[in-house]
């Protein structure tokens, strides 16, 4: 007699499981960096540049009336290397009337001019030789602010016989001073605009001295 066999229990068929769909990984998005707004900058106000002061004794900055000016003569002969101090002692002025009164034979100034006088003093400070006569190397001239011309001694600029002339050919020892008035027939326009006393006998540049209080 056959022994009953144990029926094999059918193996449960596993229901297929739905494969889980992998969740898509979101790519990280780049956060947009906000553009920085540039703050408006205040424009710097440029600092005004100061104009350099012209050299004392130049046309633009003449030595004032009453200020002593010391200079060294650069000239051949005895005057070379001599040191002098020049001062315009008072403002210049029209001295045509005084010259007419000084001598009846004086001619009047040419038309359009006046006899313009500038009182000065000139002191010899030192020299290689003594005495010295400044007239042999120091020539005083005028500069006209209107005509821009140099006015010096000549037939048309002579003032004739003057009441208090500067005697440039007188001799002086160190420490001595000569005084008097320089005079030239000067265009009226220059007198009104301003006349400068000038000389170029010094070492270096030509010197300019004012003949009016306002330069």
Structure description:
The protein is mainly beta. 6% of the residues lie in helices and 24% in strands. It has two helices and nine strands, in the order E-E-E-H-E-E-E-E-H-E-E. It has helices at 96-102, 188-193; strands at residues 69-72, 83-88, 93-94, 113-126, 141-144, 150-151, 177-187, 195-199, 207-210. The strands form two sheets. Strands 1, 2, 3, 4 and 7 form a five-stranded antiparallel beta sheet that branches. A four-stranded antiparallel beta sheet has the order 6-5-8-9.
Structural class: mainly beta
- How many individual helices? 2
- Summed over residues and divided by their number, the pLDDT gives a mean of 85
Rg for CA atoms? 49 Å
Distance between the termini: 159 Å
- The tally of beta strands, per DSSP, is 9
Quote the beta fraction.
15-25%
Shape: flat
Give the secondary structure arrangement, pairings included:
Elements: E1 69-72, E2 83-88, E3 93-94, H1 96-102, E4 113-126, E5 141-144, E6 150-151, E7 177-187, H2 188-193, E8 195-199, E9 207-210
Antiparallel strand pairs: 1-2, 2-4, 3-4, 4-7, 5-6, 5-8, 8-9
């Amino acid at each position: 007699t056959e022994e009953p066999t144990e029926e094999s229990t059918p193996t449960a068929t596993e229901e297929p499981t739905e494969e889980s769909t992998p969740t898509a990984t979101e790519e990280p998005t780049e956060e947009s960096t906000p553009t920085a707004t540039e703050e408006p900058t205040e424009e710097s106000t440029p600092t005004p540049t100061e104009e350099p002061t012209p050299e004392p004794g130049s046309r633009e900055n003449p030595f004032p009336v009453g200020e002593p000016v010391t200079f060294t003569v650069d000239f051949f002969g005895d005057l070379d290397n001599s040191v002098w101090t020049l001062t315009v002692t008072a403002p210049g002025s029209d001295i045509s009337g005084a010259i007419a009164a000084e001598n009846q034979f004086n001619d009047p100034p040419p038309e359009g001019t006046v006899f313009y006088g500038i009182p000065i003093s000139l002191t010899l400070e030192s020299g290689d030789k003594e005495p010295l006569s400044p007239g042999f190397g120091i020539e005083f001239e005028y500069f006209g602010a209107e005509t821009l011309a140099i006015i010096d001694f000549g037939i048309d600029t002579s003032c004739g016989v003057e009441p208090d002339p500067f005697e440039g050919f007188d001799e002086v020892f160190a420490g001595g001073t000569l005084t008097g008035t320089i005079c030239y027939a000067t265009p009226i326009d220059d007198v009104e605009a301003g006349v400068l006393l000038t000389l170029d006998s010094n070492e270096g540049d030509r010197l300019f001295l004012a003949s009016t209080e306002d330069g």
